[in-house]
Design brief:
CATH class of one domain: Mainly Beta
Shape: elongated
Radius of gyration: 30 Å
Structural class: mainly beta
CATH superfamily of one domain: Lipopolysaccharide (LPS) transport protein A like domain
Number of helices: 2
CATH architecture of one domain: Sandwich
Mean pLDDT: 75
């Protein structure tokens, strides 16, 4: 048999197998859609109002309801001030104080105007639409236009989207709501805010559990700005170093006191800082190439998010409201985990970079700073404060002490893994493991024999 005929024969066999495999899939999808449509048609549909009138126009039967309109379609109940129901189109236009309630999905959609298409149980709301997921704690979604498919448990929002869960707010230009999976997807310069902290990326997905935000995932060109603040709750066990970990180890080298610190190709190196709180000082953070500088989060489009950029506490603010530190990070992907509405862990992957600046008791930068980069950066919080920073995979770190401590210079570390422990607003311990190495570079100008400093 010629080669051309063999190839045609094989192609025919492959095409037949493909059709045999995919045909049941398409058939099942079509059957499911027909079943949903038939179920919608079989459900009772009736309209009540203070005043009702029926008439025909262009061959269309129209029912007009005025005043306290109530439309019931299966498990969906709609109320409004006025409605027009078109029988042939299976369409109802709803005007004034529109409220769409779904008993199965437990949500309420309100708007000034909406359309309801009973063929596919689709509600399209405009004029200040608001979707409230009514369970233990309400989650509120607003946008310029909202579409909700009751049977599919799916919704879409467009234009000035806002999601509110407790004190966490999400902003964007487009939204997709997946009811069966309890997740919300934000696009269009999305930002998630909690207080003055914020997370940004090309796409942000919010995962809801028990009616609260449990997880937020940002993808592509991600930025994080986080301000830590103490809470009244006692910090959880295992999130902070123990007293033995933070105590100064006898004979260990303190960063900034030796000209050079190195441990080439050793299994581990550990730098530990002396105890003692820094005092005063408000220097500007030193900028490092390749690390986020300042607030690098892209702002949302006008009208989608608060515009206040100042995060420094003003005079007269209460002591507990002052931040205890600031984190800035960037990467290809970020995943934040929430407990009882509070951010407790952030994982940054894909060219991960980050800064951390502890603040003093007045909420000011002390000059102490650590920059980091690696395959993974994991920031762990407890009680509203940063407790630990883990850099894993090609880990690199740069440490600068607080200016008030009387030391200067830069300590550079590298290894497979770097772990930074933070206690009481201070970087207390840095552990480097796996091909660990570290170096210290003094920034002080040496003095000559006459006591005068020499340039250069």
């Amino acid at each position: 048999m010629p080669k051309t005929h063999i190839m045609k024969y094989l192609y025919t066999i492959c095409l037949s197998i493909t059709l045999i495999i995919t045909a049941p899939v398409f058939a099942a999808a079509a059957e499911e859609e027909k079943t949903a449509e038939k179920k919608s048609e079989d459900e009772a549909y009736h309209v009540e109002a203070d005043v009702t009138e029926g008439y025909y126009t262009a061959g269309e039967q129209v029912l007009h309801g005025i005043g306290n309109v109530v439309i019931v379609h299966g498990e969906t109940t709609i109320t409004c001030d006025e409605a027009y129901s078109y029988e042939a189109q299976k369409l109802a236009t709803l005007l004034g104080n529109v409220v769409v309630r779904d008993k199965v999905q437990e949500y309420t959609l309100t708007a000034g105007y909406a359309e309801y298409r009973r063929g596919d149980k689709l509600s399209v709301a405009t004029k200040n639409p608001k979707l409230v997921l009514e369970k233990d704690r309400p989650i509120v979604i607003t946008s310029d236009i909202m579409r909700m498919w009751q049977d599919r448990e799916y919704g879409e929002g467009a234009g000035n989207v806002k999601v509110v869960s407790d004190d966490v707010e999400g902003y964007g230009q487009k939204l997709k709501y997946f009811g069966k999976e309890d997740r919300v997807e934000l696009t269009g310069k999305p930002i998630v805010r909690q207080g003055d902290s914020r997370l940004a990326g090309d796409v942000i997905t919010l995962y809801l559990e028990e009616d609260r935000l449990r997880r937020a995932v940002a993808e592509r060109d991600c930025r994080l700005l986080y301000f830590s603040r103490p809470e009244e709750e006692v910090e959880e066990e295992g999130t902070a170093p123990t007293a033995e970990e933070t105590a100064s180890a006898e004979g260990e080298t303190v960063p900034g006191e030796e000209a050079v610190i190195s441990a080439e190709e050793e299994e581990g190196v550990e730098f530990e800082k002396e105890a003692g709180a820094p005092e005063g000082g408000n220097p500007s953070p030193v900028e490092e190439e390749g690390v986020p500088k300042g607030d690098s989060t892209p702002p949302p489009e006008e009208g989608t998010a608060p515009t206040e950029e100042s995060v420094t506490p003003t005079e007269g603010e209460e002591e507990e409201e002052r931040p205890t530190g600031r984190v800035e990070a960037a990467g290809d992907r970020m995943e934040g985990f929430f407990t009882e509405g509070q951010l407790e862990q952030v994982d940054i992957t894909g060219e991960a970079e980050g800064h951390y600046w502890p603040f003093d008791e007045l909420g000011r930068e002390t000059g102490e700073q650590i920059d980091s980069a690696g395959d993974l950066i994991r920031i762990t919080m407890a009680g509203g404060e940063v407790k630990r920073i883990l850099i894993d995979g090609n880990a690199e770190g740069v440490y600068r002490p607080a200016k008030a401590e009387g030391r200067s210079g830069v300590t550079q570390t590298a290894g497979d893994t770097i772990t930074v422990f933070v206690t009481k607003q201070e970087i207390r311990r840095i552990v480097v493991s796996g091909h660990a190495r570290g170096s210290y570079f003094s920034e002080e100008t040496p003095a000559d024999e006459t006591g005068e400093t020499s340039g250069g």
